[in-house]
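User: My collaborator sent over this chain with a note saying "see what the structure looks like." That's all I know about it. Can you take a look?
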Amino acid sequence: MEYWEIVENPTGETYQQLMKVLCDHSDKFYFVTRKELKYNPVILEKFQPYILETYKTKKWANTITKGPKATVYVMESNRDTCSLLQQSANTLYDWVAPNLPEDLTFLKNDFAWFSCTTHEEYGEFSIRSEYYRKLLGQISGLQVRYIDL
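Assistant: Without extra context I'll predict from the sequence alone. Here is the result:
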């Protein structure tokens, strides 16, 4: 397993390409809302038809909260949800309250291969094959750094 962290917030065309690659190579994704924060209800309504499940938890990718449980919205990853992700933000770290839900995480076969903690401006790829490593190079402008554990 290799870990690669995002060095600079993907913006504009780089953000658009990142969302396309993540959606095209994932079965599903999720984002999180927290009870103590406000979010734009229009955004949640747009994603409503694609929700596979919601659940409450204190632990999700890269995060354990001491506060109230967060709500995780698990979505199918498809062309429509990809378009919504691309239209809803201009950068990866725009996914933060009060406008958008937080902590986008993309899964393939229930393995979280990309996760981010948006309020900390941190994003990370967990790569377990050459195929997925090569995908990172297909996103022009994406700046990543190998994490030497």
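A starting point for your reply to your collaborator: Residues 2-146 form one domain.
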